[in-house]
Amino acid sequence: MSLSAREFWTAVHGMGLGALFLLAFAGGFAGLYGLRREWETAAGIKEQVRRLTAGTWIMAIVAWLTVIVGTWIVYPWYRADPPETSTSELRYYPRSYLKEDPNLAAWHDFGMEWKEHVSWLSPILATAVAYVVLRYGFRLAEAPRVRWALIVLFVLAFFAAGIGGLFGALITKVAPIL
Asked: What is the pLDDT of residues 17-35, one digit of tens each?
């Protein structure tokens, strides 16, 4: 099996970094949910906060890498305009291919707009969660409202990325970057 450069970077973006982000979410969510004074000893909370801090920062960094690779490496190939003087097939130009067919236009009009704009919320929210975990650390075990606010932000980051990933997979199925 061989991959072109475009296929390689698309796989790194979606299946590599995107999947890592989604997996990191599960650990971070469980860590935030389980960070309770009544469930852990002081030593246990200290260890859990250390892992939670590392995990949330790794997740935030992976989220940033995912959107950066998607925006500046993969997206320009999706967005490329077909040459005006060429009779090239539109299937080599995914955006043009989708917009040309009224039955497929919604994939670009809604799906790619989500990926282009809403998906950027994911690393922003993940970074906010990571910062608060780093800043408040041990005290989060005694602050259930702050912890629940972080869980909400974390879940929103997950949904923004998850829906973006779903759209990316479906759009790639309909109009792959060749």
From this structure: 988 988 888 888 888 888 8
Residue 81: CB partners within 8 Å, gap ≥ 6?
93, 96
For residues 103-129, one letter each, b for 16 or more C-beta atoms within 10 angstroms of the residue's C-beta and e for the rest, the string is: eeeebbeebbeebbeebbbbbbbbbbb
3-state DSSP helix/strand/coil % of the chain, to nearest 5: 85, 0, 15
Among positive and negative, which fits the CA dihedral 153, 147, 131, 64? negative
From the list 2, 5, 7, 1, the residue with the least C-alpha distance to 177 is 7
Tell me whether residue 38 is exposed, middle or buried, using C-beta atoms within 10 angstroms of its C-beta: 0 to 12, 13 to 18, 19 or more.
exposed
pTM of the model: 0.88
Q: Token digits for 167?
A: 């759209």
Give the residue among 123, 6, 162 at the shortest CA–CA distance from 76.
6
User: What token pair was written down for 14?
Assistant: 């979606």
- Give Cα separations from 167 to 24, 46, 75, 107, 108 (angstroms): 20, 39, 13, 8, 10
CB 115 within 8 A of CB 167: yes
Q: How long, in residues, is the chain? A: 178
pLDDT by residue (tens digit) across 80-109? 988 876 656 787 899 989 998 899 999 999
